[in-house]
Design brief:
The protein is an alpha+beta fold. It folds into 2 domains: about 100 residues, Phosphorylase Kinase, domain 1, CATH 3.30.200.20; about 150 residues, D-amino Acid Aminotransferase, Chain A, domain 1, CATH 3.30.470.20. The chain is about 35% helix and about 25% strand. Strands 7, 8, 11, 12, 13, 14, 15 and 16 form an 8-stranded antiparallel beta sheet that branches. A 4-stranded antiparallel beta sheet has the order 1-2-3-6. Strands 4-5 form a two-stranded antiparallel ribbon. A hairpin with a 2-residue loop joins strand 4 and strand 5. Helix 4 packs across helix 5. It is globular, with a radius of gyration of 19 Å. The relative contact order is 0.15.
Length: about 300
């Protein structure tokens, strides 16, 4: 599935990731009113797995992810974030702010402030699975951090771990790194601040998710620095089903197998199907309609469960 950026009036496309597109104001366009330093982040319906963008996309995914991100930004409103001051949750900002968002991407875009982004992804793991489980089986560690013997896939860790990763270019694998390597990349003061922020946000979000019957197994945060103030700011998407692993708490408690325990609300359905039907060489096969529909339903269910008042 190729990524063809939209031609949005008043905006110039500057970057496409696996699932999101980034735009800056087009100062040459007549009537451009977006403030200096404003960016437009547009979430697409694209879905990626094993560092490939797949076809077809997941209908409505961009809007579902954006809505969940905005809900978390709003819930964690004491944590500085990159949302433009006039962009409020669920499109309830000022008329002026809404007018800056092209109709073609309304509901799946965020007006944000431009930041100097840190070159690491701030991963927090509260449970062991995925690449962490593979490393643990080989060495008893996760990103070089020693763990107790006898853990099983999907077990809760004694305490959440900060396990950063180096951001890879599009098409390459993100690289798990040690905290010491993170210090080399961003400096000791910023590395310690990013670790503390990530662990704090994860703890709060995990408790909120648990109150909704959902386990936040792990997640990935991205941060940038506000050039004007020097403040570290939470950016990109936050706590979505693309950047996090969410499991059903009842299934985790009752399940007898890893698959039953880790009943996922993210694109694990896609990963599992692809792993069983592709050898990771050449072009990935198209996703069957049934996989697309099941994945979309899980995205919708997570949004409803997490954002419903308990």
């Amino acid at each position: 599935m190729t990524s063809t950026p939209l031609d949005l009036p008043g905006w110039t496309h500057v970057y496409s990731g696996k699932v999101r597109d980034l735009y800056r104001p087009d100062r040459q366009a007549e009537g451009t009113t977006a403030p200096e330093g404003t960016m437009l982040v547009v979430a697409s319906d694209r879905v990626s797995a094993f560092d490939h963008v797949l076809s077809p996309g997941i209908p409505g995914k961009g809007e579902l992810l954006t809505t969940l991100s905005l809900w978390w930004f709003d819930t964690l409103d004491d944590v500085p974030n990159h949302l433009h001051a006039s962009h409020a949750i669920l499109g309830t900002g000022t008329d002026e702010a809404r007018s800056l968002v092209p109709a073609e991407v309304a509901g799946r875009s965020m007006l944000v402030r431009a930041l100097d982004m840190f070159p690491i992804e701030c991963v927090v793991r509260g449970y062991i699975t995925g690449s962490g489980w593979l490393e643990y089986q080989e060495s008893g560690t996760v990103c070089g951090l020693p763990l107790p013997a006898g853990l099983s896939n999907g077990d809760r860790l004694p305490e959440p771990l900060f396990t950063p990763a180096f951001k890879a270019d599009l098409g390459d694998h993100d690289e798990n790194i040690t905290f010491e390597r993170a210090v080399e990349l961003v400096g000791v003061e910023d590395a310690e601040a990013l670790r503390a922020l990530s662990l704090s946000i994860y703890a709060r979000a995990a408790a909120i998710a648990e109150s909704h019957g959902v386990i936040l197994a792990d997640t990935k945060f991205e941060f940038g620095r506000d050039a004007a103030t020097g403040e570290i700011v939470l950016a990109d998407e936050v706590l979505t089903s693309d950047s996090s692993r969410y499991w059903d708490a009842a299934a985790w408690n009752a399940g007898g197998t890893p698959a039953e325990r880790m009943a996922s609300f993210d694109k694990q359905i896609v990963r599992d199907w692809l792993a069983a039907n592709w050898d990771k060489t050449g072009t990935p096969p198209d996703l069957p309609d049934e996989i697309v529909e099941r994945t979309a339903a899980r995205y919708r269910e997570l949004l409803e469960r997490v954002t419903t008042t308990v």
